[in-house]
UniProtKB/TrEMBL annotation:
<feature type="signal peptide">
    <location>
        <begin position="1"/>
        <end position="30"/>
    </location>
</feature>
<keyword id="KW-0732">Signal</keyword>
<protein>
    <recommendedName>
        <fullName>Lipoprotein</fullName>
    </recommendedName>
</protein>
<feature type="region of interest" description="Disordered">
    <location>
        <begin position="174"/>
        <end position="217"/>
    </location>
</feature>
C-alpha cells in the first residue's frame, strides 16, 4: 500500500512513502532483515545499475513509526546510496547515506554531515560512541560508522529527532536483503531506462519543442 506524507521544504511538498506492507506474499518489509524475495537477483542488480547505485551500498534501517520515502531514494556521489525515512504523522525525517569512505579521530571533524536543512558548513564536533561517531553541527546531528570500506551516516535535525532515536536507527542500519532491495530500489522501467523519444523536437537548434499546430509538445 502506498501512502503520502507531507514533508517540509526544500523536499517535495508531497512525497510518496513506501509502506511496510509494500512487499507482498511471504516477504517482509524493508529494514526487517528479510532474506527471501520473489524477485530475481539479476533483476535487482539491473535496477541498482539503472539507479547508478552499487548494490553493495544499498542499506536500510528500521525505526518505529518511520517509513522510506520512495522519491527520496537515489544515488550519492558516484555509486553511493541515500534514502529518507519519514514519520507520516509529523513529516519528521531521518536520513540514511552510504558511500565509500572512512572515519577516524583525525578526519571526523573535517567531514561534513550529510544532507537536510540547517547549518551544513558549521563546526563539526565528534564524540566516540561505541563503534560509531556521534557528530553534531549546527542544527544537525548524526551517527557515522565505517563498515567494510563504506561510511554509513544516519542524520537528522536535533530539534525533531533525539539522540536515542538516532542511535537506534544507526544500530538498525544494515545491508539490504533481496526483499529489502525490492522494496527500496526504483522499479524497472519498461523502456529500459531510456528516455522516450519525442517527435516534436527539432534536429538542430536549442532543442525547443515545436509548438506549431498538430504537434504534441
Amino acid at each position: 500500500m502506498v501512502s503520502a506524507a507531507r514533508l517540509p521544504r526544500p523536499l517535495l511538498p508531497v512525497i510518496a512513502v513506501v509502506s511496510v506492507a509494500l512487499i507482498a506474499c511471504g516477504t517482509e518489509s524493508a529494514g526487517s532483515g528479510a532474506v527471501h524475495s520473489g524477485v530475481d537477483r539479476s533483476e535487482l542488480e539491473a535496477r541498482a545499475r539503472a539507479a547508478q547505485v552499487s548494490i553493495k551500498n544499498v542499506y536500510v534501517t528500521k525505526v518505529p513509526g518511520y517509513e522510506v520515502a520512495k522519491q527520496s531514494v537515489g544515488v550519492l556521489g558516484s555509486d553511493g546510496f541515500s534514502a529518507t525515512y519519514v514519520k507520516q504523522e509529523t513529516g519528521v525525517q531521518i536520513r540514511l547515506a552510504v558511500d565509500q569512505g572512512s572515519m577516524d579521530a583525525a578526519n571526523c571533524p573535517k567531514t561534513p554531515l550529510r544532507g537536510g536543512n540547517g547549518d551544513m558548513g558549521g563546526v563539526v564536533e565528534c564524540v566516540r560512541d561505541g563503534n560509531r561517531w556521534y557528530r553534531t553541527s549546527g542544527k544537525q546531528h548524526e551517527y557515522a560508522s565505517e563498515v567494510d570500506g563504506r561510511l554509513v551516516q544516519v542524520n537528522a535535525d536535533t530539534g525533531t529527532v533525539d539522540r536515542a532515536t538516532l542511535r537506534k536507527a544507526a544500530e538498525a542500519a544494515h545491508t539490504a536483503s533481496d526483499a529489502e532491495l525490492d522494496a527500496v530500489l526504483p522499479p524497472k522501467q519498461s523502456s529500459g531506462g531510456q528516455p522516450v523519444e519525442r517527435g516534436d523536437l527539432p534536429p538542430v537548434g536549442d532543442g525547443a519543442p515545436n509548438n506549431k499546430g498538430g504537434s504534441t509538445g
